[in-house]
Amino acid sequence: MILSGRKIQELQNDKIIITPFNEEQINPNSYNLRLHNQIGVYTDSVLDVKRKNEIKVFTIPQSGFLLEPHHLYLGRTVEYTATDFFVPMLEGRSSLGRLGLNIHVTAGFGDIGFSGYWTLEMHAIAPIWIYPGIDICQIYYHTIEGEYDLYRKKYSENNGLEASKMYMEF
After folding, report:
1. What is the pLDDT of residue 152?
2. CA geometry: angle at 117 spanning 152 and 76, to 5°?
3. 149 φ, ψ to 5°?
4. 45-68 pLDDT tens trace
5. pTM assigned to the model
6. Which listed site, 22, 58, 77, 85, has its alpha carbon 20 to 30 Å from 4?
7. Is 162 an annotated catalytic residue?
8. Which residue in the list 10, 54, 121, 147 is annotated as catalytic?
């Protein structure tokens, strides 16, 4: 079952934490998260899942940043989120998808117990300008049934952009 926007607001600061929280970002069944002013790109043109791949972090000026096709950009959310009670899910916004911007297409499934800022995988189909503070994606919450362990692993409690840590699995 997916929580309604009103239920997300009701559980805010209790079983769901979204900081900062703004009522204007509530949707019928989700909450919009905003783009921070940091964006990262990998420094190597060929990435390797068995090693740490470094990223270079840029500040997005208020005048905007042009995303080019055929590049992977890592963004992050302004909002910090946490919950030990629901499964957080992240999706791009349809308004941006209709402009050819894919947000978090392959990794939108969160884990119960995740807490931190969301690192966003962004890919532009065509050149597109983005700006800090725009509503970039939406978070929604599923209930869960059965026994579960809280997620407290490699990406939890992050403080900024997180490059892939898949190399830690080898």
Report:
1. 62
2. 135
3. -105, 145
4. 999 999 999 999 999 999 999 999
5. 0.92
6. 77
7. no
8. 121
